[in-house]
Write a structure and sequence with these properties.
about 350 residues, alpha+beta, binds zinc ion, 2 domains
């Protein structure tokens, strides 16, 4: 038995040593380690071995199997990498990988925040699921006002709405502190709107609020002029058009000279030279009194900016949905874009 084991060992080792490729190595593996191979055949001889030598023979057989398995594995490993290397086509072009970048909305939002921080404003945040009380009542919006209509606003049970503006953040902030208050609140807002090129049921606003002693409409105008000049350039001008908003009195819509034609008239501004940028006004005394401020002492102004519209203008987009489709092919155009 010992001689037979030794013979198989020698034959198997030289077969593995001689195997020059995977096929030959696998062939040797089958021949010596397979279920019907020569190793298995030796095990089948065990019953015929003299019982006195059987223990010794069993030990030798196990050692043989372990040794051959090790030899076989080493051989297969040594052949594997070479065959893989052969399958790599070095003439293929390299695979470029994409480095993430800021979303266009983030770029614009950070620019806005940066400019207002420079003017002493701090960023305030609030919930997107808001109490009706904060979204409408405390912003002086009467029960009959169309913005409260269910065709515009998404109502939730228990006195909640999905906020229609970021203005409730102003109320929440004023409730917590006394003037001077100087905040901006950028964030998502929601309206029941049929999506088209310029409307989306979810969009982004940045609200601003300044309350202190002796704040006037001139401060509002100066602040917005400074903001738009920093954003669009020093030759930018603004104009106010009278308007109505429930939470400001007086109220004004703000137009800005078109940054594309510098007021001369072009396709973007529909030849008017002006672009409508958002609402503003002096905070209605009812709103200030509602949060417990002394309205004999304090006045304030508020304004709203449409972040999506600014991003569209800035990057020359004609469809708001491009901002929300998360189409990476589109967003890659802005790779490397940094806030100014
Ligand atoms: Zn223009």
């Amino acid at each position: 038995m010992k001689e037979k084991i030794e013979a198989v060992r020698m034959a198997a080792k030289s077969a593995f040593a001689a195997a020059a490729d995977l096929a030959a190595a696998n062939h040797a593996k089958n021949k010596y380690l397979g279920r019907k191979g020569e190793g298995a055949a030796l095990f089948k001889l065990m019953p015929s071995v003299d019982p006195a030598e059987r223990g010794e023979a069993g030990k030798l057989l196990n050692e043989l199997r372990q040794e051959l398995e090790a030899v076989c594995e080493a051989k297969l490993n040594s052949l594997q990498p070479r065959s893989q290397a052969a399958s790599i086509d070095t003439t293929l072009p390299g695979r470029d990988y994409f480095i993430g970048s800021y979303h266009p909305l983030t770029v614009v939002m950070r620019e806005i925040i940066d400019i207002f921080r420079g003017m002493g404003y701090r960023v305030a945040d609030g919930p997107e699921l808001e109490l009706v009380k904060y979204n409408f009542d405390m912003l002086n919006t009467p029960e009959w006002h169309p913005s409260r209509d269910e065709s515009d606003t998404i109502y939730l049970p228990n006195g909640f709405v999905v906020r229609t503006e970021t203005s409730p953040v102003q109320i929440r902030t004023m409730e917590k502190m006394q003037p001077p208050v100087r905040i901006i609140s950028p964030g998502r807002v929601y309206r029941r709107d049929r999506p088209d090129a310029t409307h989306s049921p979810m969009f982004h606003q940045c609200e601003g609020l300044y309350v202190d002693e002796g704040v006037t409409m001139a401060d509002l105008k100066g602040t917005l002029l400074s903001f738009y000049r920093q954003l669009f350039g020093q030759d930018t001008n603004i104009r106010f058009r009278p308007h109505f908003f429930p939470f400001t009195e007086p109220s004004a819509e703000v137009d800005v000279t078109c940054p594309f034609c510098h007021g001369k008239g072009c396709r973007v501004c529909k030849q008017t030279g002006w672009l409508e940028m958002g609402g503003s006004g002096m905070v209605d005394p009812n709103v200030l009194a509602g949060v417990g401020y002394d309205i004999e002492k304090y006045t304030g102004f508020a304004f709203g900016l449409g972040i999506d519209r600014m991003a569209m203008l800035r990057f020359g987009m004609d469809n708001i949905r491009l901002l929300f489709d998360s189409d990476v092919r589109f967003l890659r155009q802005f790779a490397g874009m940094q806030p100014k």
